[in-house]
Amino acid sequence: MNKIVKIFLILGLLLTSNCGFKPIFIKSNYDFSITIKSSSGSERVNNQIITSLENLNGSSNYQVSIISNEQKSTISKDTQGDPSILEIVLNLNYKVEKDNKILFDTNLVQRSKYNNISDKFELRKSEEILVQNLTENFIQEIISSISSLNNDN
User: Fold this and answer.
1) Which of 2, 76, 91, 111 is deepest in the core (most CB within 10 A)?
2) C-alpha torsion angle, residues 144, 104, 135, 87 (rounded to 10)
3) How many CA atoms lie within 13 A of 111 on its CB side?
């Protein structure tokens, strides 16, 4: 009985202790806000970017224009000619402006290779998750670049 109490006590301490890790982009109160000035290209990429960026509220306001492009290509085929390895490439061009002055214009590329799946429903779900993850990288890059601009001022 005494061993069980000690085990629960140790597990309780291990589970409730915190090492102090805090992700950089989880910061909830940036000192800037972002307005999307224009967007064109891939709707699913743009919608995810717009939804994430317009939730930021702060005193400095930046305008962002985004142009995205999504491409899916076959990297490798099997002996029967069916695709075996595929690649998704996302391109993003974004401009950051403040007071009608372009602060920078940047091109970003994210790519991911993945194996083909015979179940097309699962393949579409997998591709959707890949695009969401790659788009999240774009969002983090945009926030990081504007954050560094905002810290310089």
Assistant:
1) 91
2) -130
3) 10
